[in-house]
Amino acid sequence: MSDLHLIYTTYGPDFGWSLTSPQVPELIGGRNSISELLADTPDILRFAGVADYPHTWRHEQHFIRDDAGDEFFIRFLADDDTREGAANRMHSELQAGADSDLIERGPVMSTGERLLIAVTGSDTIGWCEDQLEPDTGAMLGYHAGDDLMYHMPILNGRFVGRRSWQIEELGLTRASTVAQLVDALLAGQADDLLVQSTVRR
Fold first, then answer.
1. Which of 27, 92, 102, 104 has the fewest CB atoms below 10 angstroms from its CB?
2. DSSP states of 70-105 as a string?
3. Residues in contact with 29: Cβ distance below 8 Å, sequence separation at least 6, in sequence order
4. Which residue has the higher pLDDT, 1 or 179?
5. CB-based contacts of 9-13 (< 8 A; 24+ apart in sequence)
6. pLDDT at 127
7. 157 in Cβ contact with 167 (< 8 Å)
8. What is the pLDDT averaged over residues 157-172?
9. pLDDT at 185
10. 23 contacts 2 by C-beta, under 8 angstroms
11. Alpha carbon distance 162, 148 (integer Å)
């Protein structure tokens, strides 16, 4: 059984917060503030009949629309400075207009947005995959230090570039880490999957 990933999404201060989970498609909740939603989460989960999971992860997700009108969700693990820092860097890229690769190569959700997930080098591929709903992709954003960001598009358990690569083709498994993924891509096995960018904050 995979862990339970809870996604708390805000569209801005005028729209409140919503709660969803890829493990429980029928789960949906909403409140005016994140504090209200967090306080009511146990009752919402109980009402949805959510069973026990090995571990529960709480993610924060923000809706962003860039100057060109393209729409994104930026997601990071709540209360985690490292991932939130990577998320802020991705937001800075969008604000600076340095988002052409994120638009051209990032998978599009069924609702039209592109999902960017801030990750660390120690996060596993399986942990990233478990955040995705079926038939939904994302661009993983890894801050590798200094001003360097790596972005890797993942869709339906595959990494997608000019061709689609199964994890096993890269010599990796769900237990492999993001750092190992970057090493495999930099080794030239599938370098078209890797989008590099530099952003100063």
1. 104
2. -EEEEEEETT-HHHHHHHHHHHHHHHTT--HHHHHH
3. 18, 19, 37, 40, 41, 44
4. 179
5. 9/61, 9/62, 9/63, 9/73, 10/34, 10/60, 10/61, 10/62, 10/63, 11/63, 12/63
6. 95
7. yes
8. 78
9. 80
10. yes
11. 23
Report the largest interatomic distance among the alpha carbons of the chain, rounded to a whole angstrom.
49
Q: 176: which 2 tokens? A: 């492999």
Tens digit of pLDDT for each residue in 1-60? 679 999 999 988 788 999 999 999 889 899 999 999 999 999 999 988 887 788 999 999
Give the per-residue pLDDT at 12: 84
164 sits in the region (left: phi over 0; alpha: psi -120 to 50; else beta) called beta
Looking up tokens 């939130």, which residue turns up? 84
CB atoms within 10 A of CB 64: 19
SS3 state of residue 152: strand
